Amino acid sequence: MKIKELPEYERPRERLLQVGSSNLSNEELLSIIIKTGTKGVSVKEIALEILKRIKNINNLDNISINTFSDIKGLGEIKRIELLATIELGRRIFLEKQEDNKIIYNRPQVIFENNKHLFYHKKQEYFYCLYLDNKNKLIERKLLFMGTVNRSIAHPREIFKEAYKNSASSIVCMHNHPSGDLTPSIDDIQLTESLIEIGRISGINVMDHLIISDNNYYSFYDNQKDLFI
Predict the structure, then answer these.
(1) Which end of the chain is more exposed for a tag (fewer CB within 10 A), N or C?
(2) Using CA atoms, how far apart are residues 71 and 82, in angstroms rounded to an integer?
(3) Euclidean distance between CA atoms 224 and 228, whole angstroms
(4) How many structural domains is the chain composed of?
C-alpha cells in the first residue's frame, strides 16, 4: 500500500508531528528519509527490505554507497541521502561521547571546549552548561541572544533548565562582542544573583565566564569571594 493510501494518522510524517520522532518505528523513520517508493514498490516496502537485510539497526553504521544498490526504488540519490543522514547521526553521537568524557572543573577547560560557540559573534550569546555531580555535561543550552552590547539573561530561565535536567551544578558563559572582557555592572549583579539562588536551591553555580575569540574572564578565578 502506498503512503498516500494509508489513513493520515498512520503516515510516518504525520505520526512524527503527532507523537514525536522518538515514538516512531525504525521502518517509519527510514520511510521518511527515503521519501518515496517507485512503481510497484512502496516506500514502506523499501524500508522493510533494508531492515530485513541489516538484521540489526546498528549495522546501518557500516553501509556504503553501494550496499543497497540492488533494492528496487532505492536509487543512487536516495542512497546518498541515507548515507548522509547516518553520517550526521554518527557525528552527533561522537560529539556527545566526547562531551561526556570532559570534566568541567576548571575555567580553562570550559573555555577551550566552548569558545567555538562565540567565534565572530556580533551580539551577545548567553549559554549555560548543566553538569552532573561529577562535573560532566548533561546539556549545553543557548538561553539568550542580545543586542550588539547587551543580553537579557533571567535567573528564572537559567534555573528552570537546571531543574529540568536534574543538574547538580551550572556554568554560565557569555561573550562581549567588543572584545573587552571587563565585567559590566549587569554581569556582576547577575552573577551574584545566580550564586545566591543556587545556594538556596542546592544547585551550585561553579563559574561565569565572559568569552572572546581568544581569551576569557572567569568570575571564579577573579572574584572567588563571591563563591564562598
Answers:
(1) C
(2) 13
(3) 7
(4) 2
Which helix (H) or strand (E) is 13 found in, with range? helix 12-19
One domain, residues 112 and 223: yes
Cell 539573561, residue located: 153
3-state SS class at 137: strand
First and final C-alpha spacing in the chain = 67
- Beta-carbon contacts of residue 25 (< 8 Å; ≥ 6 apart): none
Q: C-alpha grid cell for residue 178?
A: 567588543
Model confidence pTM above 0.85: no
Say yes or no: 83 and 149 in one domain.
no
pLDDT (tens digit, 0 to 9) for every residue of the chain, 228 residues total? 566 677 777 888 998 998 888 889 999 999 999 999 988 899 999 999 999 999 888 888 888 999 999 999 999 999 999 999 998 988 887 777 677 788 999 999 999 999 988 988 888 999 999 999 999 999 999 999 886 556 667 899 999 999 999 999 999 999 999 999 999 999 999 999 999 999 999 999 999 999 998 899 999 999 999 897
